[in-house]
Amino acid sequence: MSADDRKLYPCTCSDCGKESQVPFQPIEGRDVFCKECLPKHRKPRTENRGRY
Q1: CA max distance for the chain
Q2: Running DSSP on this structure, what letter comes out for residue 5?
């Protein structure tokens, strides 16, 4: 299944209130963010992602 074939589900961004769509079924009571707000809520990646 390609990215174009994914089912999209309507949602309202928990941050800005904008109507959006996400490629997963939103769960009631959990925050969902639009693509503009999502980077503000993601945890920063660490440089060393290996085991050592």
Answers
A1: 42
A2: G
Looking up tokens 């109507």 gives 19
Q: What's the pTM value of the predicted model, to 2 decimals?
A: 0.69
**Residue 9 · residue 19 · CB < 8 Å:** no
Write out the H or E segment, with its range, that includes residue 41: helix 38-41
With H, G, I as helix, E, B as strand and everything else as coil, classify residue 52: coil
Residue 15 tokens read as 């941050």
Q: H-helix or E-strand containing 20?
A: strand 19-22
pLDDT tens for 1-52 read 566 788 999 999 999 999 999 999 999 999 999 999 999 998 887 766 666 6
